[in-house]
């Protein structure tokens, strides 16, 4: 049957060639696949015609082959195609910077840490050796390490290796010397570990800063290197747009420079950090939009994280009755920012974890937007009071959430907020029902960059090990269709870009991915192992699996 079909296609391709040989040749036809167009009817197609970076048409293989003649015909051999994926909240640049440091996560001993650092130092020459991710709790000897091996290997280069949480680090003698740390040094809010009258090289909390502050800020070359390294990894997992949640002027300008030079092909939706310089350079000059870069939003922190009890709650923490957490930005300042962003037509995207932070910001949004739909977003919307869900609808607020946070936090989140409040935590289905749309992301590098993990966690409400059976609060699960929309068309809407991307329809951008798995029709567990076969931006292959 398949042979007959292929023969038929070939025949049609030939006749189409004859019929349209007078007409212009288009760039690309992909055919013989299953294309999830993500149009409003959630329709599928077999083939798609692409020209000059845009989708010309979708349809059956026969109809598309008949209508167009292409310079390149790509037989999908039954594979599935989706619009290029969008990560609605991540730290693209931060992830790239991490790639420039030795990655010490999942090491099983300090010897393994040393091996990795040695390898890293051979591949990267820089005046400092930095790394991050070790955790002595993963080692057989669950004790803080000692600097002596680092001293003998690196007598002349300063080394700073941070623990996984960033709250402790081991440094070598050279770094201690440069920071002027000796056995008599004291630091408030920090600790310098001494054993048998000798500095071990382990620094805790504020003591880490004594060394950290000596490291020069990254050069433009390093920043560019980081961005390109991040792009390579992101294309390999099917991302074609990243919403970077918190950038400064210098990085945004370098992103633009790299994009203009053709090296950075990733589309970036840049959320600016608040601050005078960014306000002056961007906000006050209005919206900046190029084919690859979109600057029209500011990311604000309302509160901190639930894990460290820095989230701002309406009632005390269930496991710390004397604390309700706190706001990271003063209320007065948040209100001021909201007014000025509304004035300049900018989008306000606020990190809100606790139910108090969510309530405060929803109310501020309601006031500042004055009934208009400025598409302001709440980032994370992690713990929401039952009475506040409707405000997402009333005030046209878009929830921007990270489904893997639910499965990363599920083991301790209940302890922090108790069973009652947990009902309104990571409640993505409720948020979607109220707002009509939900934007999905990962917050990488806090989580893995792989959007398939987002899809799986949103639908199965399980971690990558498949725990817990039945899912964590399965009533808050999204359907596969909703999860896919959250990573494409709804995320595009959250970026004011739904008319150009997020679906594969005529005149939209030819940003798409080919997957080896049909994540809509397969059991959800299959999505975890789904592999990207190719990623296209603007009709051009930017990643092809080997
Ligand atoms: Zn973030």
Describe what this molecule looks like in 3D.
The structure is a single chain. With 546 residues, the protein is an alpha/beta fold. Helices cover 35% and strands 23% of the residues. It has 19 helices and 25 strands. The strands form four sheets. Strands 8, 15, 16, 17, 18, 19, 20, 21 and 22 form a nine-stranded mixed beta sheet that branches. It has a six-stranded mixed beta sheet with strand order 3-2-7-23-24-25, covered by helices on one side. Helix 14 runs parallel beside helix 16 (451-460). The longest helix is centred in the last third of the chain and has 20 residues, at 403-422. The radius of gyration is 25 Å and the shape is globular. The structure holds zinc ion. The site of zinc ion (ZN) has 4 residues, from loops. Zinc ion binds next to loops.
């Amino acid at each position: 049957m398949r042979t007959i079909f292929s023969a038929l296609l070939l025949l049609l391709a030939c006749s189409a060639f004859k019929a349209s040989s007078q007409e212009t040749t288009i760039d690309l036809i992909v055919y013989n696949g299953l294309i999830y167009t993500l149009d409003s009817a959630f329709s599928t197609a077999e083939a798609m015609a692409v020209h000059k970076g845009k989708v010309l048409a979708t349809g059956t293989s026969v109809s598309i082959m008949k209508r167009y003649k292409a310079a390149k015909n790509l037989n999908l051999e039954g594979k599935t195609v989706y619009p290029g994926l969008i990560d609605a909240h991540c730290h693209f640049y931060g992830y790239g910077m991490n790639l420039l440091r030795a990655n010490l996560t999942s090491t099983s001993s300090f010897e393994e840490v040393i091996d990795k650092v040695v390898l890293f130092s051979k591949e990267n020459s820089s005046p400092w050796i930095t790394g991050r991710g070790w955790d002595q709790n993963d080692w057989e000897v669950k004790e803080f390490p000692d600097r002596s091996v680092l001293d003998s290997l690196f007598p002349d280069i300063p080394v700073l290796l941070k623990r996984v949480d960033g709250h402790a680090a081991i440094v070598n003698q050279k770094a201690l010397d440069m920071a002027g740390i000796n056995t008599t040094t004291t630091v408030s809010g920090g600790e310098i570990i001494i054993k048998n009258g000798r500095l071990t090289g382990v620094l805790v909390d504020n003591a880490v800063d004594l060394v950290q502050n000596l490291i020069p800020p990254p050069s433009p070359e390093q920043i560019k290197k980081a961005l390109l390294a991040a792009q390579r990894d992101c294309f390999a997992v099917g991302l074609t747009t990243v919403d970077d949640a918190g950038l400064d002027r210098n990085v945004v300008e370098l992103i633009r420079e790299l994009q203009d030079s053709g090296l950075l092909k990733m589309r970036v939706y840049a959320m600016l950090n608040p601050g005078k310089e960014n306000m002056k350079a961007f906000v006050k000059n209005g919206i900046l939009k190029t084919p690859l870069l979109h600057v029209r939003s500011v990311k604000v922190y309302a509160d901190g994280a639930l894990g460290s009890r820095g989230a701002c709650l309406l009632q005390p923490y269930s496991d710390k009755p004397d604390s309700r957490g706190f706001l990271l930005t003063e209320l007065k300042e948040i209100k001021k920012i909201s007014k000025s962003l509304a004035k300049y037509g900018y989008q306000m995207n606020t990190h809100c974890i606790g139910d108090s932070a969510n309530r405060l910001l929803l109310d501020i949004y309601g006031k500042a937007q004055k009934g208009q739909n400025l598409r302001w977003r709440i980032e994370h919307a992690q713990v929401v009071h039952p009475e506040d869900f409707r405000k997402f609808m009333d005030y046209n607020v878009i929830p921007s959430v990270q489904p893997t946070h639910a499965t990363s936090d599920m083991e301790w989140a209940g302890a922090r907020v108790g069973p009652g409040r947990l009902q309104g935590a990571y409640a993505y289905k409720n948020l979607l029902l109220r707002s009509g749309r939900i934007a999905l992301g990962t917050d990488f590098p806090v989580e893995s960059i792989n959007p398939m993990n987002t899809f799986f966690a949103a639908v199965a409400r399980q971690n990558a090990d498949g725990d817990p059976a039945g899912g964590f609060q399965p009533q808050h699960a999204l359907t596969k269709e909703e999860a896919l929309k959250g990573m494409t068309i709804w995320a595009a809407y959250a970026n004011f870009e739904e008319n150009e991307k997020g679906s594969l329809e005529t005149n939209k951008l030819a940003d798409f991915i080919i997957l080896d798995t049909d994540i809509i029709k397969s059991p959800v567990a299959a999505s975890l192992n789904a592999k990207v076969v190719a990623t296209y931006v603007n009709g051009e292959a930017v990643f092809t699996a080997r």
